[in-house]
Amino acid sequence: MEFACSVRDLTRNYGGLRALAGISFDIKPGEVFGLIGPNGSGKTTTLRIVSTLLRPTSGTVSVFGINVAEKPGAARPLLSYLPEDAGAYKNLSGLDYLRFMATFYTEDNRDRDKMVEQGMELAELGPRIRNRVKTYSKGMARKLLLARALMTKPRLAILDEPTSGLDVSNSMGIRNRVREYAREGTTVLLSSHNMLEVEFLSDRVALIKQGEIIETGAPQDLKQKYGCRNLEEVFLKVEHL
Amino acid sequence: MRVITNIIVKEARELLTPQMLTPFVAIMVVFVFIGRAIRGERAKSSRPQSVIVADNDRTARSRSIIEALEGEQTTIIPAEGSVEQLLATARAADISWVVVIPESLEQRLAAFETADIRVYNVVRGFSITQMERNFELKALFDKANEQLAQDYLARAYPGTTPENLRNPLRTTEFVVVRDKIARGNADVLSGLVMSQTFMIPIVLLMVLIYSSQMIAASIGQEKENKTLETLLTVPINRTSIVIGKMIGAALVALVVSGIFMLAMVYWTGSLGSEMSAQAGAADTSAFTQLGLSLGPQSYVLLAVGLFLAVLCGLSLATLLAIFADDAKSAQMSVTPLMMLVMIPYFLSIFLNVEAASLPIKIVVYAIPFTYPFLMPKAILFGNYGLVFAGYGYMALFAAVCIFVAARLFSTDRVLTAKLRWLRWRRAGIRS
User: Is B234 within 8 Å of A105 when comparing Cβ atoms?
Assistant: First the structure.
């Protein structure tokens, strides 16, 4: 079986600091896979390596069979990455930002415009899509960025803290959108320190601490296994084992 | 091409904001204002000035001196009275000059003694235009003195040409450039050459500095606004990102430099034409004979040099900005590049690089930005070897920088690289 994403013995050092200490996991096509862990546990480093931004110190990462370190150019058309604190170009309008990004994924302007229409629907910004990004609230900017990440219909969407800093209403909207895309076949790799969010979104999760995966499984299975009501309790129990 | 155009348009839109353009437009307005003020002053100074002359001698000789003082730029106002009265009249009428011719003028001159003509200058300020007017009046007195000396000689040696007695040796100057010889004065020709090339280093300096700052700001903003990570995951060649950014920054730099140039040209006004206006027809003819005029072909050579220099600046600035964290540190990171531009700029003004010692030559020629500053002179003197060697060196330098920048963009160093000295400094602060 070809995995949407396969991570094997992945390590990454920053100078003398070991951010990842040999993690491994597989994600099936169409699955929503969540990485849970506290700040500084290695979630973002993992996502950055999968999205071809960082090179691993050792180990391999494959996206639909393509080794991202060896052939990043071949992997990039398959994936879309939403960094945690990503920004959009402040002096462009939301529409122009979508148009700018869509150009990289399409061969001609007709395809680009179709993709932009899809992005506008996803962003749900109404007429404000024509305003400059610098006039947007944090929620509006995050919706625009998520729309950018999903409008390309990636085979693997990598979302780092997709609802970071958003209010309940905006967070719910984004979660629903992610689930909707997953149902349509997009594989999602997401990270969050909001364990309730990950529990809501993910088919399976990996608990990561200090660069090591300490447990993997479906949220329901993990809760049953450790006799906990939610993933937060599971994490607290597992990290002290 | 579609991808690069997309990046270029985005760069231009991100960099050319009203906030960025406003200071430049404000500076332009200031320059235009200063230019207008200077032109106004010049126009005022070029108007004929009045000179109050009190002729206490009232002889044919004193009248001939007054006639010598009267010219296109002066109007003589005859007056009488004490010095205080004359000065009061000058102050009231806004006249700067009062000339008092003594009673005994003709008598003293007849005895071949010097006559003391008193010149009072009513000063209302100190400026270049004021100094120019002083020189004009002094020149008129020199002319009067010359006339008197010639009269003396004519009286003492009748039948001779006084001019020949005063200047028995005559020099005829020739200027030799390469294998061409023409009659003329080297200083005047130098002025003519300056009039057509003096703006070139200024244009070069501005375009280089602005384009470097633009690309550094662009990369710094991408890092600061966290847009770079997204851009680096899109399915395009990283070299296209580097090239697109460089072209976008160069275009914005051209716009900004254009605004500055308009202001500068207005400010400096007809400086170039004034320089050439000082030269006579003979000098202009010599200038053409010696092939010192920059033709269209020369400007094409200069434009290629400018293009390659900008390419060097952009590629080096890209490399330096990779090590920055944000827009502010990116702007700081191009300081070494500024130094590399300023050094040849000043050296080309104050030093003949070709005549410098070998170590200085090696250092100066190792800086790629040296060549465009030397090119105007090299083209005028037919030193095409330096021009083409400069092209080759700059192209090589830019190619290496672009290659390294593209390599850095292709790795994760573009996200993880930091200036090592900052770490040392921080470590030092902690310890």
Answer: yes
Q: Which domains does chain B have, with CATH numbers?
A: 2-32+185-430 (no CATH), 49-170 (3.40.1710.10)
Residues B74, B143: Cα–Cα separation, whole Å:
14
- Percent of residues in chain B assigned helix, strand, coil, to nearest 5: 70, 5, 20
Please report which helix (H) or strand (E) contains residue A226, including its range.
helix A219-226
Mean of the pLDDT values across residues B376-403? 91
Instruction: Classify the C-alpha dihedral B150-B152-B153-B155 as positive or negative.
Output: positive
d(CA A175, CA A171): 6
Residue in A with minimal Cα distance to B221: A89
Residues A87, B416: C-beta atoms closer than 8 Å: no
Interchain proximity A86–B3, CB inside 8 Å: no
| Residue of chain B with shortest Cα separation from A51 | B233
pLDDT of residue B430: 34
Indicate which CATH number applies to the domain containing A182.
Answer: 3.40.50.300
Instruction: Grade residue B429 by pLDDT with cuts at 50, 70 and 90.
Output: very low
Q: Measured between alpha carbons, how far is A64 from A133 in angstroms, rounded to an integer?
A: 34
Q: How many domains does chain A have?
A: 1
A100 contact residues in B (CB cutoff 8 A): 6, 10
CB contact under 8 A, B3 and A104: yes
**B426 inside 8 A of chain A by CB:** no
Q: Is B171 on the interface with A (CB under 8 A)?
A: no
How far is residue B75's CA from residue A209's CA, in Å, rounded to a whole number? 95
pLDDT band at B423 (very low <50, low <70, confident <90, very high): very low
ipTM: 0.91
Residue of B10, B230, B236 lying closest to A86 (CB–CB): B230
Question: Is the model more confident about B137 or about A137?
Answer: A137
pLDDT confidence of A6, banded at 50, 70, 90? very high
Write down the pLDDT at residue A221. Answer: 93
Of B10, B235, B412, the CB nearest to A77: B235
Is B227 in Cβ contact with A104 (below 8 Å)?
no
Q: What is the pLDDT of residues A189-228, one digit of tens each?
A: 999 878 888 888 899 999 998 999 999 999 999 999 989 8
